């Protein structure tokens, strides 16, 4: 299945297009195996924010450009080590950044479904990016792993705690402590990905899943996503879940009565609404 992608905005490090209720965001730094520098992350944040704000978009496909000139693929190889400074990754004006953490929170909290399409390497901070997506579809050539303790970094946030929720404590510690690489079948077996398809069918499969999701109720999906998040995200998770309860309450006549009465300078008449069992 193919759809007619329309470029939504032009960037330097990423590609961003939309079609039929789906947004596709692609990291496009093939010379670096799609590693992210601060600019890449700022651009990703901008595109994800646009997808979040666009009421026609329900699903985001998040992927990496490939194949590269040597025939290999990558989803993302993590932070760009060539711009890593003493306190983070150095941006265009010399400021050290760890801005991928902002992106992780946006992907996790946005009320749209984010599907990672992983071909080739998902390594280091690139592995964490696929991990925090709602769903992951892996190509049969996908390779997953963390490198932090090998290259002098670590992600002790979602990268550790959420990984343990996904694959279990023992496996998460193995992934981080040994820094091994895992193929797509191993990733499927440990619950790290949802399914594995031939690499030339990766986007088609993503579109199929997206169109199936788009037939469902947006508010039901929105509330489910925040409910899944609330289980791990403490008060921030509860805030997200409760925000949806408030949104739904605003949509009721009962909620509107409070506002209307205030505007009409009268006492609200809540007696007309039942105290449901
Ligand atoms: C991906 C690997 C396994 C691919 O190996 P392969 O196919 O043999 O290719 P290479 O020849 O190694 O690479 C091809 C070219 O791409 C460059 N390149 C690859 N990865 C990177 C990278 N991450 N940064 C910069 N350049 C990269 C190569 O240098 C090569 O270019 P040339 O030919 O010009 O030399 C293999 O490439 C690999 O292992 N890559 C490194 C993986 C890695 O260690 N990534 C970093 C891990 N750390 C993080 O991601 C930091 C996490 C993080 O960002 C974070 C976490 C928590 C809180 C905050 C942060 C934050 O920093 O924001």
TrEMBL record:
The keyword Lyase applies. Gene3D superfamilies: 2-enoyl-CoA Hydratase, Chain A, domain 1, Lyase 2-enoyl-coa Hydratase, Chain A, domain 2. This is 1,4-dihydroxy-2-naphthoyl-CoA synthase. The record marks 89, 250 as: Important for catalysis. Hydrogencarbonate binds at residues 146-148. Belongs to the enoyl-CoA hydratase/isomerase family. MenB subfamily. It comes from the Bacteria. Its cofactor is hydrogencarbonate. Substrate binds at residues 33, 77-81, 89, 121-125, 147, 153, 250, 265.
């Amino acid at each position: 299945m193919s759809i007619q992608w329309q470029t939504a905005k032009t960037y330097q490090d990423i590609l961003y297009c939309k079609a039929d209720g789906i947004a596709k965001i692609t990291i496009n730094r093939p010379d670096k195996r799609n590693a992210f520098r601060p600019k890449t992350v700022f651009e990703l944040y901008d595109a994800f924010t646009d997808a979040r704000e666009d009421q026609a978009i329900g699903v985001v496909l998040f992927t990496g450009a490939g194949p590269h000139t040597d025939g290999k693929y990558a989803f993302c190889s993590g932070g760009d080590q060539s711009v890593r400074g003493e306190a983070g990754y150095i941006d265009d004006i010399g400021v050290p950044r760890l801005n991928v953490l902002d992106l992780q929170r946006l992907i996790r909290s946005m009320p749209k479904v984010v599907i990672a399409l992983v071909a080739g390497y998902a390594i280091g901070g690139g592995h964490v990016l696929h991990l925090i997506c709602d769903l992951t579809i892996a190509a049969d050539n996908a390779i997953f792993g963390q490198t932090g303790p090998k290259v002098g970094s670590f992600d002790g946030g979602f990268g550790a705690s959420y990984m343990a929720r996904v694959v279990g404590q023992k496996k998460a510690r193995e992934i981080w402590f040994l820094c091994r690489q895992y193929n797509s079948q191993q990733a499927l077996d440990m619950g790290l990905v949802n399914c594995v398809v031939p690499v030339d069918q990766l986007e088609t499969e993503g579109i199929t899943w997206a169109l199936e999701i788009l037939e469902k109720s947006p508010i039901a999906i929105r509330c489910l996503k925040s409910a899944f998040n609330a289980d791990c995200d403490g008060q921030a998770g509860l805030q997200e879940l409760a925000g949806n309860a408030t949104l739904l309450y605003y949509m009721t006549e009962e909620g509107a009565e409070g506002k209307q009465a205030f505007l009409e300078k009268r006492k609200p008449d809540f007696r007309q609404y039942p105290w449901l069992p």
